[in-house]
Write a structure and sequence with these properties.
The chain has helices spanning 2-19, 25-52, 83-106, 113-132, 136-154, 161-192, 197-206, 212-229, 238-241, 247-256, 260-268, 270-273, 277-298, 304-324, 328-355, 373-387, 393-408, 410-435, 454-469, 487-492, 501-504, 514-541, 554-560, 565-612, 619-638; strands at 59-70, 73-82. It is mainly alpha-helical. Among the domains are: 276-547, no CATH class; 565-638. Helix 3 (83-106) runs antiparallel to helix 19, helix 15 (328-355) packs antiparallel against helix 19 and helix 18 (410-435) packs parallel to helix 22 (514-541). It starts with a helix and ends with a helix.
Length: 639
């Protein structure tokens, strides 16, 4: 089942990539969706087998063949289904199936329909290789494959030059992070002599007392890779630009696949991070800075997808805060709930854009709740979940992160709480401006605004239900035991297999008193209420409309321009590199290399033209040349 689970999406890619052009769109889209759904069913069956095994089974391991065997270097092309990868696989295939289903209707009019589904299937395949690989080299193959697919999908509408640039930006920035990951892998092999997870972690534990410095270096290098994939400072600016791709791509990248890869990498490498407090602190502070910065930028964005993009960056920052605090279960819990409500929000924004005939500026919307009731209700649920409405999924996972931060560092807790509060302001701002008030679009009559078809609204409804009930998988102590004892218990109960660091380092499990938990809960709810009442009063009661970027002043202008980070990067890196490229192109290439090559050709032509003049077919000239030649020979010999 494990092999079939991984290769079904690849089969869908091959069929759609080669034959999709000749297939009806319904078959092409249905085939791509069925391939991912089949993987989801197999993942669910494997999940149930793994969780029901007695005694607990650490992992199911499948070796297909030996990939490399040179001297002492040995790497298998192998896959491993354990409790961590099981959770990730269910997210990838489950959310991926809903996004594929949604895309059948959303992309129906696109001429590259079959190609789009081929790319989506390839994306899912590479992500499965990433999370199910049994060693770091398999992870790296999936890691690079996901980067390629993001380039293809972000720049899917490649005839638009700006979209092509956005795809190029994502690809290049991720290559920077990937260099750090690759260096970390080199150091892992140089230190421990293996890429296999189980062998490596056993050696890490055995040498924990003497390899702290090396583990810190490895952890920091791996985190550079995570910065790229999961969009952390300074490698985060590609993610908002990734909105250039079709909206289902945005949902796939932000909710179920690419951005979760960095979180997965750190959790998978927990054995290494557990031995490096310095690396964990770096992860925590980078996550905090990213979360705050992205949340502030989100306050002044007016593109509905850009608001959600900066929201993703901010939420990823919260996950890294949890990882830095050693709360790996809390980070994974938020990955799960975030997949539910962020997929819902992105697909909901796609429904709005579809109903508004490709309008994305929230200032051109307003009053859509009556025209798009299903989208409105599901989008409301997603907004409440991400902002921490009590007892919805995001409330529990975000609260657990805040509790871990409170137990670890009070300053980090305070700043993380502020970031969580800002989330409420920009999300309710977007929601109220889009769905409430009066309709403001003068180019597209409100009569033409329509609800999306069932293939688009059905995934919204399923994700809305998951966003409501998703928190039950890891309920806090003051509400009793979660399903099967909670996510932390389920991950730890694996017979001391791959996830043994959870048991080896029990101090990472955060335990607070019920009084402290309820006090933190009250603070989080208070922040939510303030954000809701303020934004409702401003944008519903008073009917305010966000200012245009040109009208922004002071700090508002700085936030609208995203702290000018893109401009700084352009000045510091892009412009100098382009200038060097222009110089090399104009002088080294055109006048140097091209001039030399052209010179050789011109010289040859000159010589040939000169010699051709004596080859004119006139016998009298030939006789003269012969006489001159004989005379020169005689003169040479006589004198």
């Amino acid at each position: 089942m494990l092999t079939l689970m991984i290769f079904l999406p690849l089969l869908g890619f091959v069929i759609n990539g080669t034959l999709g052009k000749f297939l009806p769109k319904a078959i092409s889209g249905g085939l791509g969706t069925a391939a991912v759904f089949g993987s989801f069913i197999l993942a669910l069956m494997s999940f149930m087998d793994l969780s029901g095994a007695v005694p607990a089974v650490a992992a199911v391991h499948t070796k297909l063949f030996t990939f490399l065997h040179v001297g002492g270097f040995h790497v298998d092309f192998a896959f491993q289904f354990d409790r961590l990868s099981a959770v990730m696989t269910l997210i990838i295939t489950g959310i991926g199936t809903l996004i594929h289903l949604y895309s059948i209707a959303y992309m129906h009019e696109d001429e590259g329909f079959y190609k789009f589904f081929a790319y989506l299937n390839l994306f899912i395949f590479n992500m499965l290789v990433l999370v199910l690989g049994a060693n770091y080299l398999m992870l790296f193959f999936g890691w690079e494959g996901v980067g390629l697919c993001s380039y293809l999908l972000i720049g899917f509408w490649y005839k638009n030059v700006n979209y092509g640039k956005a795809a190029r930006k994502a690809f290049i920035m991720n290559r920077i992070g990937d260099l750090g990951l690759l260096m970390g892998l080199f150091l892992i092999y140089d230190t421990y002599g293996t890429f296999e997870y189980q062998d490596l972690f056993a050696k890490v534990f055995a040498g924990s007392a003497s390899a702290t410095g090396v583990n810190t270096a490895i952890a920091l290098l791996l985190f550079i890779g995570a910065m790229g994939k999961s969009a952390q400072i300074p490698l985060y600016t590609w993610l908002p630009d990734a909105m250039a791709g079709p909206t289902p791509v945005s949902a796939l990248i932000h909710a179920a696949t690419m951005v979760t890869a960095g979180i997965y990498l750190v959790i998978r490498s927990e054995a290494i991070y557990a031995l490096s407090p310095i690396a964990r602190d770096v992860v925590m502070w980078i996550g905090l800075a990213t979360s705050l910065m992205a949340a502030l930028i989100g306050l002044k964005q007016n593109d509905i997808k850009k608001v959600l993009a900066y929201s993703t960056v901010s939420q990823l920052g919260l996950m890294f805060i949890a990882l830095g605090c050693g709360a790996y279960t809390a980070a994974l819990f938020h990955v799960i709930t975030h997949a539910f409500f962020k997929a819902l929000l992105f697909l909901g924004s796609g429904s709005v854009i579809h109903g508004m005939h490709h309008e994305q500026d929230i200032r051109e919307m307003g009053g859509l709740r009556k025209k798009m009731p299903i989208t409105y209700l599901t989008f409301l649920i997603g907004t409440l979940a991400i902002t921490g409405f009590p007892f919805l999924s995001g409330f529990f996972s975000k609260d657990e992160i805040l509790m871990s931060a409170f137990a670890h560092n009070k300053l980090v807790f305070g700043l993380a709480l502020i970031s969580a509060g800002i989330t409420g302001f920009y999300m309710f701002r977007m929601f109220f401006v889009t769905f409430h008030g009066t309709y403001r679009n003068h180019h597209h009559p409100i009569e033409k605004v329509h609800e999306s078809p069932l293939l688009m609204t059905l995934p919204l409804m399923i994700l809305a239900v998951l966003s409501v009930v998703g928190g039950v998988i890891n309920l806090p102590h003051y509400l009793g035991e979660s399903i099967s004892g909670g996510l932390h218990h389920w991950l730890s109960d694996d017979g001391l297999g791959h996830f043994s660091p959870i048991l080896m380092y029990p101090e990472h499990a955060i335990e607070l008193s019920h009084t402290a938990e309820i006090g933190l809960l009250a603070m989080a709810v208070g922040v939510f209420v303030i954000a809701f009442l303020y934004t409702r009063n401003k944008y519903v009661v008073k009917g305010a409309v966000p200012e245009s970027d040109a009208d922004q002043m002071g700090m508002g202008k700085v936030l609208a321009n995203k702290f000018y980070v893109d401009e700084a990067y352009d000045t510091a890196f892009v412009s100098p590199i382009e200038a060097v490229g222009d110089v090399v192109g104009d002088y080294v290439d055109e006048k140097g290399v091209k001039g030399l090559v052209d010179g050789v050709g011109s010289g040859s032509n000159f010589v040939s033209r000169t010699l051709s003049k004596i080859q004119n077919g006139n016998i009298e000239y030939y006789l003269v040349y012969m006489v001159i030649g004989v005379a020169l020979l005689l003169a040479f010999n006589l004198f």
